[in-house]
Amino acid sequence: MILAMLQFEIILLVLWQVLALAQAQPAGLSTNCTSKCGIVTIPFPFGIEEGCSMDSWLKVDCNHSKPYLGSINLELLNISLDGTMRINYPVYNICDQTTNSMHGLTLLKSTPFILSPLRNSFVGIGNCGNFSLLSNDDSVIAACSTSCNQNNDTTKLTCQEQVKSPLKGFFPTMSSSVRECPYSALVEQQWLQDNLKNPQDIKHRTHVPVILDWSIFTLTFDGFEKKQSNKTYELSSTCERSACSCFSTEFPTVRCKCLQGFQGNPYLLQGCQDTDECAENADICGPGKYCENFIGGYNCYSSPITIKKLKLDMIIIGLSTSFGSLFLVIGAWWLYILIKRRNKIKLKEKHFKQNGGLLLEQQLTTFDGSVDTCKLFNSKELDKATDHFNIDRILGQGGQGTVYKGMLADGRIVGVKKSKAVDKPKLQEFINEVVILSQINHRNVVKLLGCCLETEVPLLVYEFIQNGTLFHYLQEQNEDLPFTWDMRLRIAIEIAGALSYLHSAASIPIYHRDIKTSNILLDDKYRAKVADFGYSSNHKSTRDLWVL
User: How does it sit in the membrane (predicted)?
Assistant: First the structure.
């Protein structure tokens, strides 16, 4: 059992790694993107070919194996995903107008790049009395001067000042007490310390390395997310799954980074992968300790046995917690279903009582000794028969309710009338009418098959009459069925016969009270069927029959 769980865990880890590698290419980008120019690696969001960079600011031109950042036309020495890049920046010579034209206050304006503060130094080179200023618009960012002793022997022919403010561009100002061509330059501090024994060697160079901070414009970043959203590549949501975070460095720009314990490219889908600290540094835990890596970090233990025991305990706890949570969720779901079902049954019982169900049951057992006169349908049966009272099943609407076409489980086609709410004072009258109307058995009267009182409003179930209402045939003449005088006379006689039966032959006289052509239905042989009694009554009331 334990061996099987360990094998299962190893399989999951392998699958996770395979998926991560498969998704390391940014979705929506060409797979033919070149990743190097000469010896310089070009990582995404930078790119060389069209469509390989996130935007035009990050497009790289590869000329004779030398990469140039096309947007500012400066040579790239390397790019770091920590948000910095090293470029070749020209040395300023007061006598060289060609070099001077490459400088200016607006060099990086409107770009997502800045000259990195704290990592670059301003250097001035000249003879005694040379004075150099680094200006940004109207502000002085750095200033330095060379000096000599009293005998005019050179004691300091270079000066160096750290740049502490971010720059979008600069212009050096230099002056000298002797006729000469002084130099000045912005230089990467670390390069200056590691590569030059004498800073004056700068004047023998045309370019020196400078650090730029790079980021991505917010609008470009948001647009890239939306563009790639249909290709399952959304940076912010991907970061949540890829152990990276995106943040605004300086409005309106954005930068992303891998979280602690992860490394890689945060701009790629699943680009940040776990760092195996134990493999990279065997002594990370110190002498006599054992290291175990996990996603996002590592643990140190006193012995390998402890690692295995803890690992096994973690697997057992994890499986127990998972199964326990699963059973808890299933139990909660079943409890929810039972409570919902119980509440539904109680609601049906409440509606049954409110709609006079108890009174109807009493009537059915006492009225003429007949128990099966009117069938009591359940709400589930009628809901299924009418396809959940679909509007496509509506046969007609009137003052007393809406009639739907339905099919019962035994295949019978019926008309289900959803009545309007019955007032409590008229509840006794409504139940009496249901019982009496269900006993009517006349070929020219629509048969009431039963009712359902479990719903909020009563449902009445009638036999289905397929040819619609007499009103339809009188108002819209049908060439296929000429409505002749003989047919009209026959229908009038059938209606009269039905009314005569209701008034005189029924055990209790019934007066329709709402005779009109829209309440006269025609069956498959176009015989009249009196329907929709409304609030019928055993008290006389007159209403004119529409002229046929």
Answer: Single-pass type I membrane protein
